[in-house]
Amino acid sequence: MLRGALLSIISAISLGTLAIFAKTGLAMGMAPLQIVQYRFTFGALMLFLWLGLTRPELLKIRRRALLKAMLLGTCIYPF
User: HEC profile for 1-25?
Assistant: First the structure.
């Protein structure tokens, strides 16, 4: 229960600071899509780091799944 409460607090703090960072980025001349790109990149890095520290087995990918992801990313999603 304590872990859930702690994660909820971290989530609330992160959501609360989102507007501050967005406003700062816009004031610095960044485009909205650029801000979104930085946000998702930072989130992916944090997730990768968390999984690497807590459950590294989830970061292993099978060759077949990698080929499917490459196919989706290059042939289907861009269109």
Answer: CHHHHHHHHHHHHHHHHHHHHHHHH
8 A C-beta contact, residue 39 and residue 46: no
* Phi, psi dihedral angles at 60 (to 5 degrees): -80, 135
* pTM for the predicted model, two decimal places: 0.67
- For the chain, the residue count is 79
What Cα–Cα distance (Å) separates residue 50 from each residue in 15, 18, 20, 59, 67? 19, 20, 24, 11, 25
Residue type present at position 60: K
Interval 25-70: pLDDT, tens: 999 999 999 999 999 999 999 999 999 999 999 999 999 999 998 9
Residue 13 CB: number of other CB atoms within 10 A?
A: 10
